[in-house]
Amino acid sequence: MTNSESAASAVVEPLGDEVVAVDNVTAGYLPGVNILNACSLVARQGELIGIIGPNGAGKSTLLKSIFGLVKVREGQIRLNGEEITNLKANKLVAKGVGFVPQTNNVFPSLTIQENLEMGMFQKPKGLKDRLEFVTEIFPELGKRLGQRAGSLSGGERQMVAMSRALMMGPHVLLLDEPSAGLSPVRQDEAFLRVKEINRAGVTTIMVEQNARRCLQICDRGYVLDQGRDAYTGTGRDLLNDPKVIGLYLGTLGQD
Length: 255
Ligand SMILES: Nc1ncnc2c1ncn2[C@@H]1O[C@H](COP(=O)(O)OP(=O)(O)OP(=O)(O)O)[C@@H](O)[C@H]1O
Ligand SMILES: [Mg+2]
Prior knowledge:
By secondary structure, the chain is of the alpha/beta class. It contains 11 helices and 10 strands. One of its GO terms (molecular function) is ATP binding.
């Protein structure tokens, strides 16, 4: 496709509906200390959104703010056009939002199966179907349903956590560093799973430390810096943006 053809198709291509909208959000943990500073982000129907940025930029805080775990002080968050600012996590789960936190995301003393069943506590009907769906995406878990989650590696726990979030059949998935602590081969695998989940129709917002890989697979990305959305664009645009490379991707962006 030539540049002019792609520009033309970009003009006529309708944008999907906004599923998640974070509108100038300010949020923090301690009184008087804002971690997010007028931060904005949009995820449209079916998009895979990547969030990258330096340690401490507020990436996890942004996901927690969407999921009602950090108090939003100013600004607004919407889900399918409905305001959900500071709505509690259990209400958000009931509205179809799943969240996989960065750490402590499984119940170590429970088996894999019990962890997955915990994910269905609000919706016990359809357990069998959901279990089938997630063990198709994560077949290695399906074979070890009776094993205690505490005996799994970090990467395997991340898979259990992702599967648990999928048990409710969410239409939005918030993922905090799904590839953390994995070997390069396992990281690729984790990204493939995320892509597969997204292709099944789940609008996905993924925070990633592995910035280059994240931008390669996401539809659009956001670079967070000091609590603000410093840069946004398609994954490809960000990967090729000299400022983003220089500041956030280092030499990794150049190969
Ligand atoms: N529970 C908390 N109480 C107080 N401050 C916190 C808390 N959690 C995070 N912070 C602070 O908020 C800032 C942003 O943290 P956050 O975890 O959102 O960063 P991040 O971009 O996810 O970083 P990383 O890449 O290391 O995961 C940091 O300065 C951190 O110290
Ligand atoms: Mg984090």
